[in-house]
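Friendly challenge for the regulars: who can give me the structure tokens for this chain first? No prize, just bragging rights.
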Amino acid sequence: MSPKREIEAVAAGMVLAARLSERLGLVGGADVARLRTLIEQANLPVDAPRLGADRYLELMRHDKKVAAGTIRFVLLCGIGDAVVKSDVPAATLRAVLDD
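First reply, four minutes later:
Bragging rights claimed.
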């Protein structure tokens, strides 16, 4: 993957992580909107390709944040305040990935 594509993937992934954080009650919608706006202002994509939850989960299993077969997520508690969690309910994750 080219460096530009990697940056674009990280940007769209940050928005997905923020939306997941909101669904989990960790962060408010205003922070998600602010993050989305900042990424848009940097001319980066805010929407991930629609691959479906199954494909995303397959790809996520190869991510560097996977430990002992468990996917770990960097989630927001606020702008500049992140937490790593692995206990994300599957239904919630699937809802965000399919949304």
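Strands lie at 73-78, 81-85. The longest strand covers residues 73-78. Your move, everyone else.
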